Amino acid sequence: MLDFHSLTEDDKKWIDEIFDGTEYFGCFCTFATLWLWKDRYFTEVARYGDTLLIRGVDDEKNIYYMYPMGRSYDIHDAISVLRKDAAECGTGLIIYCAEKWQCDELREAFPGEFEFAEQRGDYDYIYLTDNLIQLRGKKFHAKRSHISKFMRSYPDWSYEDISDANMAECIDFASDLLQKAVEGQSEEEVFELCMENSAIALALKNYAMLGLVGGLLRVGGRVVAITLGEAINRRVFVTHFEKADTDYDGVYAMINNRFAMNRLSGYEYVNREEDMDKEGLRKAKLSYYPDILLEKFSAKDIAD
Questions:
Q1: For 92-211, where are the alpha helices, taking DSSP H only?
Q2: Radius of gyration of the chain (CA)
Q3: Burial tier of 276 (Cβ tally within 10 Å: 0-12, 13-18, 19+)
Q4: Engineering a disulfide at 24: which of 29, 85, 92, 216 sits with its beta carbon 3.0 to 4.6 angstroms away?
Q5: What is the pTM of this model?
Q6: How many whole angstroms separate alpha carbon 46 and alpha carbon 64?
């Protein structure tokens, strides 16, 4: 019997142990990612030996599962227990955000038993860290221009790491941005913006516990941008949030570059997460020319 339960701080130790030593690139493969969005997706977890199993609820109120996670697992055994749990919940097994290699593993283990569909809005955008720092070549000319304009326009700018000393300012900044962002938005968009703001506040208030790293920009002493994330493993850093006041020209390019320059040079890659099928966000993420576009798929159990 699986012990699925709502994700809590007490789960961090064993989840970190399961992720330790793995080579995942996906943004879901950290405790913080799961914990920060637990209220949005009703995230529940269960330990099955040395395997992490995850269950959630999507916007259509469908129960879904994530692909089994860990250094080693028996895929036949893991899928068997997930099938049983789904049946007990009165639904069929559907796995969200499975990577291509995981879909291949399912096809080999269960030929003809799963139906796969692309989840384009959940693709992760993964960049070579050196590209984000150096911005070399013609393709990054616009980014360099944005940064130069920011530095010329706001000569009193400064960068600093997020710390206890400026944490309250970061929380207030995110809240102020939310108030500006919700004006004129649909009810659905307001909901999403509020959920994101709640996740940012949760991240900042639990910064040390989650092991997060962040940076901010100031202009004239005022916070105008913040960003924060964490290591997935020794090779990959994931940026969870990046928020900026667009009244300041070039501010997004500047915070992206300065944070990478100051804190991320020790990582080979930076995962800047998905675009959620938002056209503007997709355009922005593609403009940095991802080295890896990490494909994601749903896998629906169609076995009799």
A1: 100-109, 129-134, 141-153, 167-181, 187-205, 207-210
A2: 20
A3: exposed
A4: 29
A5: 0.96
A6: 14
For each of the chain's 304 residues, which pLDDT tens digit applies? 689 999 999 999 999 999 998 999 999 999 999 999 999 999 999 999 999 999 999 999 999 999 999 988 999 999 999 999 999 999 999 999 999 999 999 999 999 999 999 999 999 999 999 999 999 999 999 999 999 999 999 999 999 999 999 999 999 999 999 999 999 999 999 999 999 999 999 999 999 999 999 999 999 999 999 999 999 999 999 999 999 999 999 999 999 999 999 999 999 999 999 999 999 999 999 999 999 999 999 999 999 6
Given a contact cutoff of 8 angstroms between Cβ atoms, the answer to whether 210 and 216 are in contact is no
How far, in Å, CA of 40 to CA of 197, rounded?
12
Q: Which amino acid would we find at residue 110? A: F
| Domain ranges for the chain | 5-123+296-301, 125-273
Give the CA count within 13 Å in the CB-facing half-sphere of 54.
29
Encoded tokens for 268: 């080979």
Q: For strand 44-48 and strand 51-57, is the pairing parallel, antiparallel, or unpaired? A: antiparallel
Query: How far apart, in Å, do the first and last CA atoms of the chain sit?
Result: 23
222 to each of 76, 166, 261, how far by Cα in Å?
55, 11, 21
* Separation of CA 191 from chain center: 18
Q: What is the CATH number of domain 125-273?
A: 3.40.630.30
Would you say the CATH fold of 125-273 matches that of 5-123+296-301?
yes
5-123+296-301 maps to CATH 3.40.50.2000: no
* Cα distance between residue 184 and residue 248, in whole Å: 21
